[in-house]
Write a structure and sequence with these properties.
The protein is 45% helix and 14% strand. It has 28 helices and 17 strands. The strands form three sheets. Strands 2-3-1-9-8-10 form a six-stranded antiparallel β-sheet. A six-stranded antiparallel β-sheet has the order 4-5-6-7-11-12. The protein has a five-stranded parallel β-sheet with strand order 15-14-13-16-17, with helices on both faces. The longest helix has 22 residues, at 245-266. The two termini are 26 Å apart.
């Protein structure tokens, strides 16, 4: 993984300033400590730059930006292409000549020449973000991998188009302005992150997962989705015809295991050491078990807490480490470590990502890098595909037991009366807002499940925000004209984000079960823009590349064709995956209660750190913008600090937001 950035001048008289390009590049030195490069076209209308983390083909010939034989194409690339050798052989047979030994970057250049942009990315098996300049056509192409493992940001500014692996690179350009995007703030309060293509910075956008985009010298912009996590791509229905129920289950088990084994094996592709984060849960333990089939030595890494032992999974991680003979390493952290990391966290995130697991993730990433590891395999994506969260099972029970009967059998006037009563009760007891919000959704014909990471519901926002306080910010016309930004994202109603995903899905794939629709939602929002963005930003702050076997495209396509009942038979979370890994990892790991990768934020906010949170929230210059009701925030702090309520997630979401604003916008570092 690396850091990429670049400038395209849109004014006929504009010229790329090398100093701007190098500042943008070197703001991401952590993403590429092994090398650096920059290229500016002779006509000076475009410049590309690169920071290199050497992983595949460590030779100087694989340095970037890289060009083709005649200099008509230039690329800067972040990520890995796991099938690059097969693609190289195909391209050689077609007459292309390669000058590197085994660089996956060069495949992008010749693949673009042979197949064009869209067909190229459809053939790629990997995790990637890249920018490619076609000098003959005077077009800059951008691409992000299907699931969104790698980030890619861009910005339209007067007379110039900018892009980068991180927002901080774009902000180094003198045309950039640091201002809040109010609608992104509104949706962030719902989802812990801003939904793509919005970011918290006005005028800065992120390319959604599975998209390509192109912009010309004249500023014309187009975007296209080339892949989507929809059913119908992974299982041939004829292969299931006539099979018994047990045989169908066996087909799913074999298919998952084969694809997962392949996903782990190909993510070992590297000319540097590869390790695994090991929590002792099913997902990371499976990664270790499969990795051990292909390697005689493996380093594993676990993080725990010195001050709250109940959250530790160290003993389970050690069971797996001993079972598979890994070189195992542990690190323990506490509140003091967390507080010392906070400012670096805000800098690393670029925009607020309100997931406190960033904290243990940072310290275990630091440990892995100190032990000489450059590539790490992680377990993200398993719980989403196989319904591993208790909240998922709760949403499914809610849907089948209450949601459907309520909407089907209760007359509309009675539904409205129940919703009104629920809102009235919730006004007296704020902790009941979540239930009132669910009933409100049912009455209004909205989805019962929005995401596995909902914070402030629409009703709770009425307590938090002043009426009419949040207004629309400026959005580049190119985004709405290209269709990349649905118009509903620009309204103060976060359901419009969910609607923009599920209405097209239901039209093209009608009648899908609730779990499949929930998982699809997660692939459009929470996975790429919260969980994977978190993993990328934090691991790369330590020059560590994270790879995600459970989000291999072939595996995702296969699991999206497995129905809810097969994944959760008997109401058991992760039933199918547990069946798949039985015999591969110990039963005590498979059947133990899920703990999750978290931090003791509830307790930390009730100790000294809680005073820092309160001071940051109420003293932030963001409070002067007129969005928030300070009295409601004081109530959250008071009730949490006293132990009366657990508002830790709400407070952490607001703390991330205000800390970001004071550092990146008001502070203007």
């Amino acid at each position: 993984m690396c850091g990429i950035t670049g400038i395209l001048e849109l004014s006929p008289s504009g010229e790329v300033d090398e100093r701007d390009l190098l500042r943008m590049r070197d703001s991401m030195a952590h993403r590429g400590p092994d090398g650096e490069g920059a290229w500016i076209a002779p006509h000076r209308r475009v410049g590309l730059a690169h920071r290199r983390l050497s992983i595949v083909d460590l030779s100087a010939s694989a340095a970037q930006p890289m060009t083709n034989e005649d200099g008509s194409l230039w690329v800067t690339f972040n990520g890995e292409i796991y099938n690059h050798l097969a693609l190289r052989q195909e391209l050689v047979r077609a007459g292309h000549r390669f000058h590197t030994d085994h660089s996956d970057t060069e495949v992008l250049l010749h693949g673009y020449e042979q197949w064009g942009l869209t067909e190229l990315v459809r053939r790629l098996d990997g995790d990637f973000a890249f920018a490619l300049w076609d000098d003959a056509r005077r077009i800059l192409s951008l691409a992000r991998d299907p699931v969104g493992v790698k980030p890619l940001y861009f910005s339209f500014r007067p007379g110039v188009f900018l892009f980068g692996s991180e927002i901080k690179a774009i902000l180094q350009h003198p045309a950039s302005v640091r201002e809040l995007q109010p609608l992104a703030l509104y949706h962030y309060l719902s989802f812990l992150t801003a939904p793509a293509p919005l970011t918290m910075f006005e005028g800065v956008y992120k390319l959604p997962a599975g998209y390509v985009a192109q912009v010309g010298e004249d500023g014309r912009f187009r975007a296209e989705r080339y892949w989507d996590a929809v059913p119908g791509q992974g299982v041939d229905p004829s292969e299931l015809a006539g099979l018994s129920a047990s045989a169908v289950e066996g087909y799913y088990v074999d298919g998952v295991l084969q694809r997962l084994e392949d996903a782990v094996r190909k993510r070992m592709m590297a000319d540097v050491p590869v390790g695994v984060f090991l929590s002792g849960g099913i997902d990371s333990s499976t990664n270790v078990a499969l990795f051990s089939r292909f390697a005689s030595q493996l380093k594993t890494f676990t993080v725990g807490f010195k001050d709250h032992l109940r959250l530790n999974e160290l003993q389970y991680a050690k069971i797996i480490a001993d079972r598979f003979g890994t070189q195992h390493h542990e690190i323990l952290i506490d509140e003091r470590d967390m507080v010392g990391y906070l400012e670096q966290l805000i800098h690393t995130q670029d925009e607020p990502i309100a997931d406190w697991s960033c904290i243990p993730l940072y310290f275990v990433s630091q440990l892995a890098r100190q032990q000489g590891v450059t590539v790490i395999q992680v377990g993200e994506g398993s719980d989403e595909q196989f319904s591993g969260y208790a909240s998922y099972m709760g949403y499914l029970r809610l849907y089948h037991r209450y949601w459907q009967p309520f909407r089907r059998w209760l007359p509309r006037p009675a539904q409205a009366a129940v919703a009104g009563l629920a809102r009235g009760v919730a006004r007296l007891e704020p902790k009941l807002d979540v239930y009132a919000d669910i009933i409100d959704r049912a009455v209004r014909g909205r989805e019962h499940f929005w995401t596995g990471a909902t914070v402030f519901g629409e009703l709770t926002k009425r307590r938090l925000l002043h009426p009419g306080g949040v207004h629309n910010g400026h959005v580049a016309a190119a985004l709405t004209e290209s269709g990349l930004l649905p118009p509903g994202h620009l309204e103060t109603d976060s359901f419009n984000v969910i609607r923009s995903f599920l209405e097209p899905f239901d039209r093209s794939h009608p009648g899908r079960d609730p779990l499949t629709r929930m998982i699809y939602n997660e692939f459009r929002l929470r996975l790429p823009e919260l969980l994977l963005m978190r993993v990328d930003k934090v691991t790369m702050s330590q020059s560590l590349e994270a790879r995600v076997p459970f989000l291999d495209k072939r595996l995702v396509e296969f699991t999206m064709d497995i129905p809810e009942l097969a994944k959760t038979r008997g109401g058991v979370a992760k039933y199918l995956l547990k069946k798949t890994v039985t015999g591969l990892i110990p039963d005590e790991i498979i059947h133990r209660k899920k703990m999750g990768f978290a931090a003791p934020m509830r307790e930390w906010m009730r100790s000294d750190f809680g005073r820092q949170v309160e001071a940051t929230l109420l003293g932030s210059s963001l409070m002067e913008r007129g969005y928030f009701r300070a009295d409601y925030i004081r109530t959250l702090v008071r009730e949490h600090r006293s132990g009366r309520r657990d508002w830790s997630l709400y407070l952490w979401t607001l703390f991330n937001l205000t800390s970001w604003y004071d550092y990146w916008v008001a502070g203007a570092p």
